[in-house]
């Protein structure tokens, strides 16, 4: 089926759809003298954690999207309602079940003036393959078709790849520039084709972008965009109140009411594709390596109490690793590990661990996360598990996990960025995948994932998915805690910020009016 949208139509649709989650774009407001209100030439926002890299292929975390989303373009995009739209892909056609052809927007330039062509798109896909992209199991080849055509040939049918291409980590990078300078140089001097280009940055402090005036789409309304790294939630709120920043991410939930009551501020909320979860170390030297103990731990967790006490209701308890809004959700809700303390105690006894053991929980410094872990520690004490919290920088936790250091549980999140359950199910549980921080390995699950992605028979597809969830429940390598609601705070003078369910909030159409 041929899908074709004009670039103008796409832009109009994206603008209209994004405003459902945030403050919408408005016409310039008049001042008391009848003239247009002036706007600032810079928007400054703050988030809790530094980003790992400016390379979009490697920087797959939400904290990186806040910047890279503005520097790079993807082939497709989601609006705030998770409806998919064309972006750099002007049109596409499924030639048959295993052959996708895409036509690119022509005349697109990278920030250094080089044209963006099919060579760059194919390079992006192949570069991701080198880093272990999940589609290595079902894509035969990526091929250029002239300067502005791309063919993807699949080994088996796999139409859900379209959803994955919306992810900011599918941002197009310039092949020639990258190969001339190398990966390390590119990370420090990145070039994309997005509405903003890098101005300067200081790792751990700030990242500043400047409007790219040769952008192929609608130009950014504000010249400069700066992100500051401010770990303390209370400090981000204070900076917002004093006017030092225009928006604050990851505000403390306890501050939400205060922000609502402040006539100079606004509280912005949006549904989320993020599940906050514990990755449980299946190879730990502690008894947590026993699946019965892992099951007991989840049964011992009163997740509703955590949502009520820690999140102040800004979220919902999660019993599956994908949000229920995801395409192909398919969770059998009859077999979930809902709170049952007696069941938890019985499982600990069955595992020979009724007297408990010591365990370390890793957590980053965000207030909501430390508060959650504190509650969990109290809950696990009821089944004689003596858990200790080790607070570390998020990047340190990632590095230690990658290095193979021992731990009990680590609090992370995983955002179903593509909007399709495949994104989560193929990234955090199959053996050897990049985000399998639980060190879980199950041959049956690995085989089922491949079959699930390949089958076109709907009944068989559903049967396989059900078995995949059964394996997850049996082995419990990951314990989902809650599906968040994204909560931001902003100056009342900020308009046009378009919120994203995956945290790639968009400032292209945003302005801050001067008082």
SSE order and pairing:
Layout: E1 2-4, H1 7-18, E2 42-47, H2 62-71, E3 76-78, E4 84-86, E5 89-96, E6 99-104, H3 118-130, E7 139-144, E8 149-154, H4 161-164, H5 175-181, H6 183-188, E9 196-202, E10 206-211, E11 224-229, H7 233-241, E12 247-248, H8 256-261, E13 265-280, H9 291-299, H10 303-310, E14 315-317, H11 341-350, E15 357-363, H12 367-381, E16 385-391, H13 394-402, E17 409-415, H14 421-425, H15 443-454, H16 458-475, E18 478-491, E19 494-495, E20 511-512
Parallel strand pairs: 2-11, 2-12, 15-16, 15-17
Antiparallel strand pairs: 1-5, 3-4, 5-6, 6-8, 7-8, 9-10, 10-11, 12-18, 13-17, 13-18, 14-18, 19-20
Helix pairs in contact: 9-11, 15-16
What does this structure look like?
It is globular and about 65 Å long. With 515 residues, the chain is α+β, with helices and mostly antiparallel strands. The termini are far apart. Strand 9 (196-202) and strand 10 form a beta hairpin. It folds into three domains: 2-19 and 54-188, Dipeptide-binding Protein, domain 1 (Alpha-Beta Complex), CATH 3.90.76.10; 199-271 and 485-512, D-Maltodextrin-Binding Protein, domain 2 (3-Layer(aba) Sandwich), CATH 3.40.190; 272-484, Dipeptide-binding Protein, domain 3, CATH 3.10.105. The model is unreliable at 1-30 (pLDDT under 50). It has 16 helices and 20 strands. Strands 2, 9, 10, 11, 12, 13, 14, 15, 16, 17 and 18 form an eleven-stranded mixed beta sheet that branches. It has a five-stranded antiparallel beta sheet with strand order 1-5-6-8-7, covered by helices on one side. Helix 9 packs antiparallel against helix 11 (341-350) and helix 15 runs antiparallel to helix 16.
């Amino acid at each position: 089926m041929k899908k074709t949208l004009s670039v103008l139509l796409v832009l109009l649709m994206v603008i209209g759809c994004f405003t459902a989650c945030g403050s919408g774009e408005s016409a310039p407001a008049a001042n008391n003298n009848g003239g247009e209100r002036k706007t600032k030439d810079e928007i400054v926002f703050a988030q809790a954690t530094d980003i790992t890299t400016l390379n979009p292929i490697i920087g797959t975390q939400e904290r990186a999207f806040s910047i890279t989303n503005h520097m790079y373009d993807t082939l497709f995009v989601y609006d705030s309602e998770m409806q998919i739209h064309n972006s750099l892909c002007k049109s596409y056609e499924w030639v048959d079940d295993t052959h996708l052809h895409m036509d690119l927007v022509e005349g697109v330039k990278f920030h250094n003036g080089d044209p963006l062509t099919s060579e760059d798109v194919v390079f992006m896909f192949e570069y991701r393959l080198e880093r272990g992209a999940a589609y290595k199991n079902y894509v035969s080849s990526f091929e250029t078709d002239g300067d502005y055509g791309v063919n993807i040939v699949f080994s088996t049918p796999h139409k859900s790849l379209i959803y994955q291409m919306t992810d900011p980590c599918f941002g197009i990078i310039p092949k020639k520039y990258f190969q001339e300078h190398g990966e390390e140089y590119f990370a420090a001097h990145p070039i994309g084709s997005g509405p903003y280009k890098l101005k300067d940055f200081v790792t751990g402090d700030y990242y500043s972008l400047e409007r790219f005036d040769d952008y192929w789409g609608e130009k950014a309304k504000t010249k400069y965009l700066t992100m500051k790294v401010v770990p303390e939630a209370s400090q981000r709120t204070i900076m917002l109140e004093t006017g030092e920043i225009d928006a604050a991410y990851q505000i403390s939930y306890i501050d939400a009411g205060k922000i609502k009551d402040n006539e100079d501020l606004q509280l912005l909320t949006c549904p989320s594709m993020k599940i906050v979860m514990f990755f449980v170390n299946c190879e730990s030297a502690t008894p947590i390596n026993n699946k019965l103990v892992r099951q007991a731990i989840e049964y011992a967790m009163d997740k509703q109490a955590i949502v009520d006490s820690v999140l102040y209701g800004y979220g919902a308890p999660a019993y599956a690793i994908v949000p229920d809004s995801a395409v192909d959700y398919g969770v059998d809700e009859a077999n979930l590990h809902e709170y049952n303390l007696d069941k938890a105690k019985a499982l600990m006894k069955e595992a020979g661990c009724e007297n408990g053991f010591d365990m370390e929980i890793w957590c980053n410094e965000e207030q909501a996360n430390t508060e959650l872990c504190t509650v969990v520690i109290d809950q696990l004490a009821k089944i004689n598990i003596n858990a200790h919290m080790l607070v570390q920088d998020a990047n340190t936790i990632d590095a230690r996990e990658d290095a193979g250091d021992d731990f009990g549980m680590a609090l992370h999140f995983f955002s179903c960025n593509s909007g399709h359950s495949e994104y989560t199910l193929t990234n955090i549980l199959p053996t050897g995948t990049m985000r399998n921080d639980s060190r879980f390995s199950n041959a049956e699950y690995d085989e089922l994932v491949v079959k699930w992605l390949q089958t076109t028979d709907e009944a068989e597809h559903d049967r396989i998915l059900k078995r995949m969830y059964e394996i997850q429940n049996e082995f419990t390598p990951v314990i989902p805690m809650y599906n968040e609601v994204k909560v931001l705070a902003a100056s009342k003078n900020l308009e046009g910020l378009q919120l994203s369910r995956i945290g790639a909030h968009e400032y292209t159409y945003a302005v801050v009016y001067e008082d």
